[in-house]
Amino acid sequence: MLALRWLMLLVYASLVGCEKHIILLAGQSNMSGRGGVVNDTWDGIVPDESRPSRSVLRLSAGLVWEKAQEPLHRDIDVTKVCGIGPGLAFAKSLMHKDSGVGQVALVPCAIGGTNISQWARGSPLYNQLVRRAVAAVQGGGTIRAMLWYQGESDTVTLADAELYKGRFENFVINLRQDLVFPLLPVIQVALASGSGPFIAKVREAQLGTELPNVWCVDAKGLQLQPDGLHLSTPAQIQLGKMLAHAYLQTIPSPIHSGAARRVPKFDCLSLFHRIAGR
Predict the structure, then answer these.
(1) Rounded to two decimals, what is the model's pTM?
(2) CB 191 within 8 A of CB 27
């Protein structure tokens, strides 16, 4: 009997980390990743923090889970050359800091050069984000958060900059409704750069977001590429670690989405209880 209890404990210990921690990656080019890209050519350099791991997956454009490797957005942000982004560094830093995280599953959705208005409910970008999020939970796992880095394109005109706060908050509210996840955690990045003169106005909106379960990581001061717009590879690695730190500080316990609950999934705890009841 004692041996059986030990066996059940071992099975439980091996299974509690089996669920995919699903993380949505959305926004524009600095989330998609331009680290190491100069003159439309990626240098191919992948730091250790962004190298593939058997415990980090990505959802491909074809909605298939595969081992994550840079560039994460290569088949999503297809009109531009992609390089290093923060996603893999985030995932590996998260697992390093929290041994209870067994597997991180990244869902790339970012598209370079996009304005917040292009992410409004019903737009192609919004619909793709929802479609990929729903597909991500089909095989099991839980959406834990969305990482959002966007706004550079909204610094071009004063009108867009002034409307940013309201547009972003509406985007989050609508996404939570459509994913049936009213408190979807969102970690957004305050701009390090911009395409126009109203960077401060957009940053003010980002740092002043008042929605519950929305937090902000400030990228100001991180190293930029020669173009003065995109984060360098070292900066993307640093940002990934900053995002992981914020995730662990602000999200103390897993939150399961309504969408995830409605689809078939492999439930580790249920399997354990079935074994225990025999």
Answers:
(1) 0.85
(2) no
